[in-house]
């Protein structure tokens, strides 16, 4: 969403919406428990900082330490992407332990039991934002919800060639290309700044610059396929600053939507438990159940995701699954301990 002086992205808006909705839910919980609402603003600060810092450092250390150790300045460029939910989870737990003792004067488990309910809701909204952004997508597959993520190649083209002013894709047809996968056929429109080229040969010049580039990066990203015999339509009447041509879009599992639905369902389950049970006698149960459900589901959904880093290719379990196992085990410990404690 371009406002002229500022460009708003759906991911940022949904990320912020998750915190705002969580704030109002926590406000009700604080009122129910008779806790001063003055302490809620401090909680929001703790959680926001922990989420951003933890998610970023999680990505840096868990996924791409080899790169960031050589380019430390890049760690601070959060806007370029690269956040890991496992890192956020660890950082939030640490932040809540500190907050509970310094500010709230209550058990950390009392706070975590309530906070994780809002975290599940925020996680659902964040994954919808990932879907809009076309990131953390699934593997190639013909699912009823198959999605072609055109935003990544579009932005990469615009970043690589400043004289490209717009890139649009319009669905035209469907075709079976390989492995019986039905590929949508798009008509791509590349609009460019005529002032940067000789007007007589502008379209040919743009085509010669763009084709080698897109044929190199799309083989890596696999979001679009420009056929080797890609032949654009030149000299479109009335549009000398535009190139048209046909491409194939790669259909993928929209795993962001799968996750968003799963996290929202987990939110409903946890909130229902909160409303119908006396948590005073089993502190830690909802927190443990949150870890079991969220990261157990995350372990399963990773089987449908595209590999995030090249080093994971061929691994039986990817890094996201390996990091989920100890969190699920931690959740089992807290949930069982809470139930045993209640019986005693």
Q: Low-confidence stretches at least 5 residues in length (pLDDT < 50)? A: 1-6
Largest sheet features: 4 strands, antiparallel
- Domain unit count: 2
Shape: elongated
The overall average pLDDT, rounded, is 82
- SSE run: HHHHHEHEEHEEEHHH
Strand residue percentage: 5-15%
Helix content: 55-70%
What is the first-to-last residue Cα distance? 56 Å
Describe this structure in words.
The structure is a single chain. This protein is of the alpha+beta class. It has two domains: 10-137 and 255-343, no CATH class; 147-252. It has helices spanning 10-33, 38-63, 65-68, 85-104, 108-133, 151-160, 202-221, 255-276, 285-301, 319-343, and strands spanning 147-148, 164-176, 182-192, 224-225, 242-249, 251-252. A four-stranded antiparallel beta sheet has the order 2-3-5-4, covered by helices on one side. Strands 1-6 form a two-stranded antiparallel ribbon. Helix 1 (10-33) packs antiparallel against helix 5 (108-133) and helix 9 (285-301) runs antiparallel to helix 10 (319-343).
Which short descriptors sum up this protein?
single chain; 344 residues; alpha+beta; 2 domains; 4-stranded antiparallel beta sheet; two-stranded antiparallel sheet; 10 helices; elongated; disordered N terminus
């Amino acid at each position: 969403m371009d406002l002229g002086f500022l460009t708003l992205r759906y991911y940022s808006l949904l990320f912020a919406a998750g915190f705002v909705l969580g704030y109002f839910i926590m406000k009700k919980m604080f009122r129910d428990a008779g806790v001063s609402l003055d302490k809620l603003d401090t909680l929001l600060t703790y959680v926001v900082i922990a989420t951003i810092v933890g998610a970023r450092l999680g990505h840096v250390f868990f996924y791409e330490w080899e790169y960031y150790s050589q380019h430390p300045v890049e760690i601070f460029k959060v806007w370029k992407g690269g956040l890991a939910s496992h890192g956020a989870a660890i950082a939030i737990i640490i932040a809540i332990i500190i907050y509970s003792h310094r500010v709230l004067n209550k058990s950390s488990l009392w706070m975590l039991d309530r906070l994780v309910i809002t975290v599940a809701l925020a996680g659902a909204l964040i994954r919808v934002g990932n879907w809009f952004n076309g990131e953390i997508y699934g593997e190639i597959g013909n699912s009823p919800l198959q999605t072609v993520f055109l935003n990544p190649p579009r932005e990469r083209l615009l970043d690589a060639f400043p004289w490209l002013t717009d890139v649009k894709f319009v669905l035209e047809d469907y075709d079976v290309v390989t492995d019986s996968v039905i590929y949508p056929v798009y008509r791509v429109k590349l609009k460019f700044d005529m002032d940067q080229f000789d007007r007589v040969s502008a379209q040919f010049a743009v085509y010669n610059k763009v084709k080698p580039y897109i044929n190199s990066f799309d083989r890596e990203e696999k979001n679009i396929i420009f056929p080797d015999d890609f032949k654009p339509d030149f000299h479109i009447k009335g549009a000398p600053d535009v190139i048209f041509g046909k491409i194939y879009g790669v259909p993928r599992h929209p795993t962001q939507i799968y996750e968003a639905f799963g996290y929202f369902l987990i939110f409903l389950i946890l909130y229902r438990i909160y409303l119908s049970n006396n948590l005073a006698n089993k502190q830690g149960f909802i927190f443990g159940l949150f870890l079991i459900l969220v990261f157990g589901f995350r372990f399963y959904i990773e089987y449908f995701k595209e590999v995030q880093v090249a080093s994971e290719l061929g691994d039986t379990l990817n890094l996201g699954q390996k990091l989920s196992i100890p969190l699920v085990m931690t959740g089992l410990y807290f949930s069982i301990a809470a139930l045993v404690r209640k019986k005693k």
